[in-house]
Prior knowledge:
The protein is elongated. The strands form four sheets. It has an eight-stranded mixed β-sheet with strand order 12-19-17-18-16-13-14-15. It is 40% helix and 15% strand. Helix 14 links the parallel strand 13 and strand 14 (339-344). It contains 24 helices and 19 strands.
Amino acid sequence: MKLDRYDINRCAIFVFYDKDGIVDKYITELLKGMKKEVNRLIVVCNGEVCDEGLSSFNEVADEVLVRPNEGYDITAYKYGLNHVSLEKLSDYDEVILFNSTLFGPIYPFSEMFSAMNKEDVDFWGMTTFHEVPFDPFGTIEYGYIPTHIQSFFMVFRQSLCKTDDFKSYWNNLPKITNYNEAIGYFETVFTKKFSDMGYKWKAYADSTELIGYTYDPLRDYPRYMIEKKRCPVMKKRSFFHDYGEALSRSGGEAIREVFDFLEQNTDYDTDMIWETLLRLENQADLKKRMHSNFIVPSKVHIDSYRPSSLKCALVIHIYYEELAEFCAKYAKEMPENCDIYVTVPSEAKLEVAKKAFLGLSDRNVEFRIVGNIGRDVAPFLVGCKDLIYKYDLICKVHDKKVYQVVPMSIGASWGYKCFENTLKNRTFIENVISTFENDDKLGMLAPPVPNHAPYYPTTGKGEWGENFKVTKELAEELGIHVNMDESKEPVAPLGSMFWVRTKALKAMFDHDWQYDEFPKEPIDTDATVLHALERLYPFCVQHEGYYSGWLMVDTYARIELTNWKFINDKLIRALFKKTGVCNFRELIERTRNL
């Protein structure tokens, strides 16, 4: 049946789940967009919802139902349908099922509904999942995944709702106890089951031309689906799902592509995306999917460069007298309108530092004696705690000399990597500041982790080493509550050098650190508060609603690419001797028990 008229009576059932019971802004905007197109909006909450969330729902929905978080979305859909009554569903021209796994509307839903009103169908959806010739879930009655409408958005017309076939399906739906059953008993089979019975269906964002390219067009070609097919939503999961999955089908470009499109070519507020992702997801997943790697030029200004209004400062700690001039050389690259703070442990070292910084006598340079405790961390968190309220942006660096690794050239190279990728030269620094100015969700940028000589295993330990437990405990103490996972690396400044938006460290500075909270020398090589803080910085940034990324100057990025290509080649050659030639995902499986 077609619905090519103006007086269409629609009922929408929206299923919501959030592990914290929080209703983010993207949810209310999604519902406001849908409410414009429906006569009755019912929200079904799987699990508890906070009071503020219930208030948000009550402002837009006609009814809000709260049920135990059991049986996944499909059971909640059934709960909503039964609440209306299967017998009374045919009072509506269309009954809509959709859920909270979507960002949207990117375009007004009216555009989609107007187009689908002209279609002679019994049920329809937003997008299609194409046929897969096998059953990866072990629960699909056909033994393969049929082409089907994706269940995050389905619409049933009166011509279907009034039938005994439809009512019988819902009445006899088996109990859902796990994810594989939710997929196998409903999403993958509904379309084929009713199509085989003679009911007509269609997807609004038709993707027939992508058959052979992908099974899931909205997952693998989101920009194409949104830009060319006018799909009005983006899947939330795409921003944090396992990156290995993306690499098994592509080069990993899809999510960065679509996010840039949303920012530059639509009116959708992408801050809503960041709000919920930063609250719920792990930063390692977000960094991979969003490619939060900033390669900043050192010879020309970036296109978006403009003189910054941000108030900036450099905080530099000097302990090794012989490195004072090395540090001063980089400090001189700071723009004239940026203040410089030099911390030293003693009067004797102060004189050396002042001599090294004589070339900056025309600049606002302040020296602070902070004592010899807490390495470079305590001087920043205690000795410079007042700066957090004076500046918008701080660059924190320190002299770096490594005695425990020989030859000492190894540690010197790490120090070089850190300084080059934070303070290369004036143009680079101005570009970094401009990058923060142009992205108000960017909270921290730091050089990549070291990957040479004995530092290489750092990446194999997920950058945690033996420090996850102490970091997690410190996060709890400071009231920092974000997704921390020992199996996923922090986007951390392991050299303790970084650029940071001061607002992004609020929770850390709210602690009002004191020197006696830091260990005295000699310091253990792992699991101290110093090691915890080094890894906690980006989680504090995330807690405050910002994201972190890697920062590289263009002249060092070429070195980094060479290093990782060389390392990868050597590893692959060694592994292939044991496993045989295979793709990345197969290699992971074959080496799992080596």
